[in-house]
Amino acid sequence: LVAVIDCTAAQLTPDPCAGTTGQSFLPHPTNCTLYISCYEGMGYEVSCPPGYFFNASATQCDVLVGDGCPVSCPPDGIAVLPDPQGRCDFYIICLGGLEYPGECAEGLYFDVTLEECNYAHLVDCVNNPCSTDPATPQPEIYPNDADCTKYIYCLAGEPITRTCAPGLHFDAATLKCVDGPCPDPNAPVDPPPV
């Protein structure tokens, strides 16, 4: 009896990491759904999960938008693209092959489907609030501005979206899931005591 093991997710790659120390991540030269994980000078080819691509500027796998890998501005015509750094409230306007940065107004995020800014709660995007500074106290926990029943837990600088149990919402003051529905953002706020 012979067992065959699939090793495609960790194939040794030809030397892109030679001379590197510690751990780093490099984009794959021909496939955006792969990246090279470098550790102490050795490189390993790693696949992003299905539906994700390797975002080299954020050094993480991000959700694929559209039918394929992210592309730069087309050489001709007009196009509107999501921010290549993954920031929800920014986008790129392409005019004749040139890139012009755009920014949504406060409370709006770029909607890839509509190719324009839309209310943040209607767009499936979360800005990465996590720090990559090792001096930052752990764990880091942040509210999800788009959905009060969710929060962001940072693990090694990577955002992980967590959901509160049914009937609870995330309280930004205590950084915990608490009983009750989401607070009304339009409700009057009591002034602080004098």
UniProtKB/TrEMBL annotation:
The keyword Metal-binding does not apply. Transmembrane segments: none annotated. One of its GO terms (cellular component) is extracellular region. PROSITE patterns: CHIT_BIND_II (PS50940). GO terms for molecular function: chitin binding. Residues 14-71, 73-125, 127-177 form the Chitin-binding type-2 domain. Keywords: Chitin-binding, Disulfide bond, Glycoprotein, Repeat, Signal. This is Putative chitin metabolic process. SUPFAM superfamilies: Invertebrate chitin-binding proteins (SSF57625).
